[in-house]
Automatic annotation (TrEMBL):
<dbReference type="InterPro" id="IPR043129">
    <property type="entry name" value="ATPase_NBD"/>
</dbReference>
<dbReference type="InterPro" id="IPR036388">
    <property type="entry name" value="WH-like_DNA-bd_sf"/>
</dbReference>
<dbReference type="Pfam" id="PF12802">
    <property type="entry name" value="MarR_2"/>
</dbReference>
<comment type="similarity">
    <text>Belongs to the ROK (NagC/XylR) family.</text>
</comment>
<dbReference type="InterPro" id="IPR049874">
    <property type="entry name" value="ROK_cs"/>
</dbReference>
<dbReference type="InterPro" id="IPR000600">
    <property type="entry name" value="ROK"/>
</dbReference>
<dbReference type="InterPro" id="IPR000835">
    <property type="entry name" value="HTH_MarR-typ"/>
</dbReference>
<dbReference type="Pfam" id="PF00480">
    <property type="entry name" value="ROK"/>
</dbReference>
<feature type="domain" description="HTH marR-type">
    <location>
        <begin position="17"/>
        <end position="68"/>
    </location>
</feature>
<dbReference type="InterPro" id="IPR036390">
    <property type="entry name" value="WH_DNA-bd_sf"/>
</dbReference>
<protein>
    <submittedName>
        <fullName>ROK family protein</fullName>
    </submittedName>
</protein>
Length: 383
């Protein structure tokens, strides 16, 4: 039996630290592994040799700062991970390996709010089809990351609010999908997965602290602190959409008044353009019109940006993140929405917190959540 602190348990712990660092980064040089794990160069070198001989990692020659180095990544057949992302209007599935390669990915339109049963059925079919495409047997799958557009109750695993996906009332999404696929499933909300996706694959690579803010029909934030998603004991950390901007403002779906979401959520933004623009507008269309110079669309996007910026300033004062990454449909407007956010941050945040902060668009677009679902498996389901 191993006792904590014994040589072999220490070795195992070091091995796991090295593996996790490589898994989350995709590939690292031995010097980078030493820096991010705090282990000595000699220990890292020994562990990498052991893992390489076992076929767990692949070592390839590379150069770092003009010097020869050895790049370490996980072997491509070390295991398969699956990501399933439910949006309000789409289902997206990706199959990848632990070396950060996406092997197959597909998205299809779906009315997620209508029926959970139909949604899970479609997900089951799509996962099976993509696995077949990659040629990997279901038994190779280490785990499935599942994204849903609403808060998850940590204790019951059910959706924390019945107002968001009425067709999903009483359903524990991870349990349901796990039953159908016969695979272990870990669930999280879309904003947390977007944050993980951008952290591992996108605009947040190499950072330990960031906030990902998703603005679409609702508004939510995923918070990464010291390289980990911060969820809070109830799983509701990051509900930035429900900070109060105006106590006597419009009533929000959460029951309060004047929440950030009531000023920047899709329904509100589209409502502002109802009298002046053609019917059938969507946020992507509004963004497109704004980029072509439509003044009304530019104005509502800028106003939304200023309001989001107030929320970001509060977040910045509380958590002092290095970077805020904007995702969701509105992020596609680029500087039309980002500049007003930056102006609000400059006005309302404490100068020392604001100085260190950069506000940038996500680089993954609509793929952030499904890639985050893959990263969720890599970070929390692999031993
Ligand atoms: Zn609210």
């Amino acid at each position: 039996m191993e006792t904590p602190g014994s040589q072999s348990s220490l070795h195992r712990a070091n091995l796991e630290r090295v593996l996790k660092a490589v898994r989350m980064a995709g590939s690292l040089t031995q010097a980078e592994i030493a820096r991010s794990t705090g282990l000595s160069a000699a220990t890292v070198s020994n562990i990498v040799r052991e893992l390489s001989e076992a076929g767990t990692v692949v070592v390839t020659p590379t150069s770092s700062g003009g010097r020869r180095a050895r790049s370490v990544s996980l072997s491509g057949d070390a295991g398969i991970v699956v990501g399933v992302d439910f949006g309000h209007t789409h289902l997206r599935v990706a199959v990848g390996n632990l070396a950060h390669r996406v092997l197959a990915e597909e998205s299809e339109p779906i009315d997620t709010d209508a029926s959970a049963d139909e949604g899970f059925g479609r997900a089951e079919t799509l996962v099976a089809r993509l696995l077949e495409q990659t040629g990997f047997a279901p038994g190779k799958v280490i785990g499935v990351g599942l994204g849903v557009p609403g808060p998850i109750d940590v204790e019951t695993g059910a959706l924390g609010s019945t107002a968001i996906l009425p067709g999903w009332t009483g359903i524990a999404p991870a349990h349901e999908l796990s039953q159908r696929l016969g695979m272990p499933v870990r669930v999280d909300n879309d904003a947390n997965l977007g944050a993980l996706g951008e952290l591992v694959w996108g605009a947040g690579r190499g950072l330990g602290d960031l906030a990902y803010i998703k603005v679409s029909s609702g508004v939510g934030a995923g918070l990464v602190i010291n390289g980990q998603i911060y969820r809070g004991p109830g799983g509701t950390a990051g509900e930035i959409g429900h900070i109060t901007l105006d106590e006597s403002g419009p009533v929000c779906r959460c029951g309060n008044r004047g929440c950030l979401e009531t000023f920047v959520g899709a329904r509100h933004v589209l409502g502002l353009l109802q009298a002046s623009h053609e019917p059938g507008l969507t946020i992507p269309k509004v963004v497109q019109l704004a980029q072509r110079g439509d003044l009304g669309c530019r104005r509502v996007i800028a106003d939304a940006g200023r309001q989001i910026g107030t929320g970001v300033a509060n977040l910045c004062n509380l958590l002092n993140p290095r970077r805020v990454i904007l995702g969701g449909d509105l992020a596609e407007a680029g500087d039309l929405v980002l500049d007003p956010i930056r102006e609000s941050v400059a006005r309302y945040a404490i100068p020392s917190a604001a100085r260190q902060l950069s506000v940038v668009p996500g680089t993954l677009g609509g793929r952030a959540e499904v890639l985050g679902a893959l990263a969720l498996v890599m970070s929390e389901m692999v031993d």
